[in-house]
Every structure is written in C-alpha cells, then in structure tokens.
Write a structure and sequence with these properties.
Number of strands: 21
Protein name: ABC transporter ATP-binding protein
Strand content: 35-45%
CATH architecture of the largest domain: 3-Layer(aba) Sandwich
Number of domains: 2
CATH superfamily of the largest domain: P-loop containing nucleotide triphosphate hydrolases
Oligomer: single chain
Domain ABC transporter: 4-236
CATH topology of the largest domain: Rossmann fold
InterPro entries: AAA+_ATPase, ABC_SmlMolc_Importer, ABC_transporter-like_ATP-bd, ABC_transporter-like_CS, Mo/tungstate-bd_C_term_dom, P-loop_NTPase, Transp-assoc_OB_typ2
Helix content: 10-25%
Order of helices and strands: EEEHEEEEHHHEHEHEEHHEEEEEEEEEE
Keywords: ATP-binding, Nucleotide-binding, Transport
CATH class of the largest domain: Alpha Beta
Structural class: alpha+beta
GO molecular function, one term: ATP binding
Strand order of the largest sheet: 7-8-9-3-10-11
Radius of gyration: 25 Å
C-alpha cells in the first residue's frame, strides 16, 4: 500500500468552491476518517482523489505518483484506487462470486477463481458466492462491495459512508469488522462519515471539515479532548459552556475555580472567556460538601438513562443548568442535592468567538 498526500487542494463543484486549500498526509496502512456536517465537502474530496473531479489548485499524490494537479488528471481506472459507496450497488444479474470477480484482473481461470474465493473468505462469505444479490442482507451486500473494491489490490481504498444505510445494530458490528479487516490487510483507507462515533471509534486519525476548510486533523483523542476551535468542540460530542473570568491558568465560573487551557488566543487576567467542558469531566463529589471553596452546589433536575451510562441535568444553585455524563452503575435520583467538581482541565475560548 502507499501513502496519500493531498497538498493545498481546492476543488469547485459547479460554481461552488467545495474544497478550499485542504492538506492531508495519510500514512501507508492508516485508516483516516473525514468527518463533517452535510455539505462540508467530504464527498467532493473523495471524488477528487478518485479522479472524478479535477482540482483547481494543489496536488494529490499516491506513493510516488502524482495523480492530480491543475490541468492534469490521471484517469480513475489508472489510479489504483478502490471505492466502496454508501449503497452496495451490486450487479443484480451477477452472483456474489461474479460481482467480486468483476473487479479481479483477467487472467488464468484457476488463479482468478482462487482470488475470488480468497476475497469471499476474507469478508466471511465463503458459502454465499453462488447467491444472487437480492438474497443478501444489507450487511452481506456491503461485504461483497468491500471484497469487490479490494479485488484489484488497490493502493488506496475510499469508503463513502458505507454503513449509513444499515440499521444501528448491524452498522455497529459491521464497521468494527471492516476496520479490523482493513488493518489486517494493511490497506490505506479514507472513510467519509458524518457519524462522530464512527469516526472516533474506527479511525487512526480524523480530519474534520467545515465549509470546505480543514478545521483539525489529529487522533480521535486529540479531536475530542483537545479541539482546535470552539466549532470543533461543539461539533464533536456534547459540551458544557460557561462564561467566566481568566485568572492565571484558571477560569472563575459557576463551577468554581476551574483549571483550563486557553485555545487559539492568549488571555490576560480578568478577561472574559468561555469555558468548555465535556459532560463526563463534571462529577458529583460528596466529599466536597463541607468545603465551600471547592466545586458548586446543584440539584439533579433530570436523568436520561442510556443503559451503559446516563446524561444528568443538574441545576446549579448559583448558576445555570449543566450536563453530567456518568456510568449507569450508581446514579443519583432526581431531586438529590449534589456538589459538583471538574475532574480535568477545561478549555477556554475567547468570548467573542462563540455563538
């Protein structure tokens, strides 16, 4: 497999600048997710890498081969790029084996049959090669589409929201299986998704797009724990935002004096800032009830139970409501008085940058 380098690429879709000066470097064998809201340019980026849209600026390189630059586009079939679409798009008149074999390079019959059998085994469909596409479940059809995309041994595999049409339970299991398979095969892969959980749980790194711009590119932990902007913080996961005053590495707010890191600016003591916290960073601390200087008093207003965890809304005595996410092992009850504390440093953003 090969590295993929997208260097300062801009792409127009019709009269719209859909991708603006985007740069990504994806290592061989890496699975990278491209995450963003609808219309942010995710699919446009994939189409340009696949050779289906020309670039207006910048270059795209796979390994040591430059495949796109302004005025020059290598044909899609000569790029060594595989594609798994949102819908499996299997040929209805061909069997599973024939669908897989459609993408296997023509050659001696025995070698070709071996490759089809190898791919069917790889995706767990050994006993299905003689079936018609209409005899498959949605997950099985996507496995066939994956096998077909891997058949020519592509340098790069592009996956365009391949699990979006599946029900929740099937989607969760299949995407985990596919990620493990791609890593086992050492396949360099680019997965487009609008599903934050999918991006964070599957990818080695995540590229977050907004309005055609790259907002942040990093590991799932960096994207979630250290967002590069207030927009990324709000888009990826739940947030609690509180106004406060900056005091030498801490923010004085309704939750007390909270340690924080300033993001994107250098505040002076006394500056008004916005403190961002993840709900799981706020915890009830019964041991602090007698310490007026630590934490903040609150009353549990509601509990949204989700099985493995729960989201709790707590009304601060001297402030607004805040969200807490807790493991659903030992939950408070609605109406309970609690004292809340922040268990890890928060993130401070300039007040004017938040909506």
């Amino acid at each position: 497999m090969s590295d993929l380098v997208v260097d300062a690429v801009s792409v127009t879709h019709g009269s719209t600048l859909a991708i603006d000066d985007v740069s990504l470097s994806i290592r061989s064998g890496e699975l990278v997710a491209v995450l963003g809201p609808s219309g942010c340019g995710k699919t446009t980026l994939l189409l340009s890498i696949a050779g289906l849209l020309p670039v207006q600026a910048g270059t795209i390189t796979i390994g040591d081969r430059e495949i796109s630059r302004p005025g020059r586009t290598v044909a899609p079939e000569k790029r060594g790029v595989g594609w798994v679409p949102q819908e499996a798009s299997l040929f209805p008149h061909l069997s599973v084996g024939e669908n897989i074999g459609f993408a296997v390079p023509r050659g001696r019959g025995a070698a070709r049959a071996e490759r089809i059998a190898e791919l069917a085994h790889l995706v767990g469909l050994d006993d299905y090669t003689g079936r018609a596409p209409n005899q498959l479940s949605g997950g099985q059809a996507q496995r066939v589409a994956l096998a077909r995309a891997l058949a020519p041994r592509p340098d790069l595999l592009l996956l365009d929201e391949p699990f979006a049409a599946l029900d929740t339970q099937l989607r969760t299991g299949l995407r985990r299986e596919v990620a493990e398979l791609l890593r086992d095969q050492g396949t360099t892969s680019l997965l487009v998704t609008h599903d934050q959980e999918e991006a964070l749980t599957l990818a080695d790194r995540v590229a977050v797009l907004r309005d055609g711009h790259l907002e942040q590119f990093g590991t799932p932990e960096e994207i979630y724990q250290q967002p590069a902007s207030d927009w990324v913080a709000s888009f990826v996961g739940d947030v609690v935002e509180l106004p406060g005053q900056w005091r030498g590495g801490r923010v004085l707010c309704a939750l007390g004096s909270v340690e924080a890191s300033a993001v994107g600016f250098t505040p002076a003591d006394g500056d008004t800032v916005r403190l961002m916290l993840r709900p799981e960073w706020i915890v009830p601390r019964p041991d602090l009830l007698a310490q007026a200087a630590a934490g903040a008093d609150a009353r549990v207003a509601s509990i949204s139970y989700a099985g493995h965890d729960a989201m709790i809304t707590a009304d601060l005595v001297d402030g607004p409501s805040v969200l807490l996410r807790m493991a659903a092992v030992e939950l408070p009850e609605v109406g309970d008085d609690v004292r809340l504390a922040v268990q890890r440093p928060g993130l401070a953003f300039a007040a004017a940058t938040l909506p």
